[in-house]
Amino acid sequence: xxxxxxxxxxxxxxxxxxxxxxxxxxxxxxxNLQWFRQDPGKGLTSLLLIQSSQREQTSGRLxxxxxxxxxxxxxxxxxxxxxxxxxxxxxxPNSNSGYALNFGKGTSLLVTP
Amino acid sequence: DxxxxxxxxxxxKRTGEKVFLECVQDMDHENMFWYRQDPGLGLRxxxxxxxxxxxxxxxxxxxxxxxxxxxxxxxxxxxxASTNQTSMYLCASSSAGLGRSTGELFxxxxxxxxxx
Lengths: 113, 116
Prior knowledge:
The complex is a heterodimer of chains A (about 110) and B (about 120). Helix content of chain A is about 0%, strand content about 55%. With about 110 residues, chain A is an all-beta fold. The model of chain A has no long low-confidence stretch (mean pLDDT about 95). By secondary structure, chain B is mainly beta. The model of chain B has no long low-confidence stretch (mean pLDDT about 90). The interface of A and B includes residues 31, 41, 42, 89 and 99 of A.
C-alpha cells in the first residue's frame, strides 16, 4: 500500500525566509505527484502537479522537485510571506487504483511578520 | 475559473437520519471523488467514480453510498447517519490522466457535517 509521509508536521519561520517542505512515498511507480495548500476550514487548492517524467515544476515563488527513484519530493517556497501560512499536503496515486490519491498528513506552516 | 461546488458548507443532523451531500463540477471532468478529513487521520477516500454510473470503493466505504447519474454531479449518501460520521467531507474532480491515473485534482470548499 502506498504510504505518504510529510516532515516536519509543523514549521514556524520569520517572514522572508526560504523554506523546504518534504514528502516521501513508499511505492515509486507513480505517474505524478501533486502539492496542495489548505487554509483552515477550507478545501484544498492545487499548487503544482509534477508528472513522473519531470524533475521539477515551478509556479511563482514555489518550486517542486520529484525524485522517483528515492521516493521523495520537496516543495521549496522562496521569500516566505505571512499569506503563505497554511497546511501543505502532497499526494501520489494509490498503488492499487491510480485514479485515487493517497495524501500525506501535511505540514502546517506559520510565517510570522 | 474551474469550480467544484458542494451544496452545503455546514450541516447538523441527528443520528439515524439520511444525509445527502451534493457535488457539482463545471470542468467536464471524468473523475470525481469523495474524501473525509479528520484531525490526526488526514484525508481518506470514501468512494470515487471514473465515469457516469460507475463507482469504486475507496478505503472507508462502510456506511456510505454514492450516485453519479450525470457527469457533472456526484452525490454522497449516508443511509443512517451516526456520530462517528461527524467530519469534514471534501469532493474533488479531475480529468483522466495517463493510463489508470488521474490529472490535476480540484477540490470543493468542503462540507462540515455534525451528527448529534
